[in-house]
Amino acid sequence: MFLGETNTMLSYxxxxxxxxxxxxLVTFPDIPEAITAGDDEGEALxxxxxxxxxxxxxxxxxxxxxxxxxxxxxxxLVVNLPALVVTKVLLANEMIRQGVRKSDLxxxxxxxxxxxxxxxxxxxxxxxxxxxxxxxxxxxxLNISIA
Length: 147
Hints:
By secondary structure, the chain is of the alpha+beta class. Helices cover 42% and strands 16% of the residues. InterPro entries: HicB-like, TTHA1013/TTHA0281-like.
């Protein structure tokens, strides 16, 4: 997925540590608020995605930019955000950079606030047409690519 000319596949490096209870502790160097665990590596990574999305919601609520992922170390596992969540992160970050509030975006799109709230909800299944319109209202264009 691309915004402008920047490749923005969001693959967050993950740290898995086997703890004393024989469960895997999951942390993210780039998003320290995302912490979880799992009984095995697969469950830990699945729970990691949920923890990452929950942390992203916290960033949205606090009106803070979501940090972009660092480059994983050789052999380090990553958790990939779904394409729609990536789009929502990019939208929220662009709004913060431009100083555009949710109410401003609602006016620009001629929609009610709950519709903007859903655009910025990582767990809501927004339509890409609505996401494209939001980016256009910010003077940006959303392009999707398959690699």
